[in-house]
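Weekly structure sync, notes
Attendees: PL (lead), two postdocs, one rotation student
Agenda item 3: pending single-chain targets
PL asked that the sequence for the first pending target be pasted directly into the notes so everyone works from the same version. It is reproduced below exactly as submitted, 429 residues in total.
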Amino acid sequence: MESRLTVPFEPHQLQKEIIESLKRFSVYVCHRRFGKTVLMVNLLNRWALNNKREAWRAAYIAPLFRQAEEIAWDYLKRYTATIPNIQYNASKLRCDYPNGSRITLLGADNPDSLRGPYWDAVVFDEYAQTRPKVFPEIIRPALTDRKGWAIFIGTPQGHNHFYDLWKDAQDNELWASKMYKSSQTNILDKEELRQARDEMTPEQYEQEFECSFEAALIGAYYGSKIQDATVEGRITSVPYDPILPVHTAWDIGINDATAIWFFQMSPGGEIRNIDYEENNNFGLDYYIKLIKEKPYVYGYHLAPHDMRVREYISGRSRLDYAESLGLRFEVVKNIPKVDGINAVRTIIPRCWFDEKKCDKGVQALKAYRKEYSDRLSTFRDSPLHDWASNGADAFRMLAVGLEEIQPALRGKTTMPGFNKDRTANGWML
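Predicted structure, written out during the meeting:
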């Protein structure tokens, strides 16, 4: 007679709905206290027990290794404790099954630790907080040879890569997707939700319990300013005006993304952001070629102070290298970051953004936020360095550099980027 193994977990009705709706790729947006981590751990556990594949491998990936250890590891041990001959490796957060299956808990904060293994199944928990490159560049290729499954689950944090994934899944019949708001699930006590609403800001409650991708991020520097721009209709179609020069503001990455804002100044003082570019793993020559190919007549090119840093091997600065390629930068004054952030807050009310070409940059401004200290249970004074930093840092160059170039734009003085009759002359031609 075949023996049955009892696992101390019984999914609630909506958790059962998720299990039944799964496809090879699935995205689920869930409110706080839905039980998503418990569900995912038990789903992997069930697959590990029942699969017939040799050396079946699964990964649960949290944004931080510490999160995987503090949250999911206890769940995994609890729900596998009844399995005979189960083995645990606490240092590697690994669970080995008697049939040869294995579940490993990992953190996306160390991408190199994710390279190498193949995966039959992967769960991304709190995917909005995970580095955007981890899935497409590391995990997706590792699913290929075994045709592995991937599940993305979490709570929104603005229009970031989780939002993009959620939207893309809506139009892809090969993907499953579902959103679970607290007002619809009836999982949490209504009085408890009412108290939470009273104690939290509207943005916090909408994000955490109503799964709003539109709510301003908690701790965001510019969230309310960008929301004002949306309400006032300043995120719309902003066409290029060939009468006015186009200026650029840069954040130049070495092992990170390079971001560029393209903007024009109207005679009335409006800042018209007409274009935005961001990319990874390309040299300065790529971006200079890119902006030369655009149909714009350029004025100033604003860059951070580290453009002056000389490379160890060549002995040349990036400033010199750019000039040799035909682009002259104006190096923006190096001021404390907090002052630059305040400068951005000051100019956003004057800004218009093209809703299509600048969408990624606008979402970066909206998502740029303070770093949170779990140990102190409060926000730090310093910004969180994540995917939003690149676009936000480039816009900070725009805000700080604008103070330096405005006298020339008003015709009160001549700056290196313009000749006496104020004709755009930013290229070294």
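Discussion points:
- The longest helix spans residues 389-409.
- The domain at 223-409 is CATH 3.30.420.280 (Nucleotidyltransferase; domain 5).
Action: rotation student to compare against the earlier draft before next sync.
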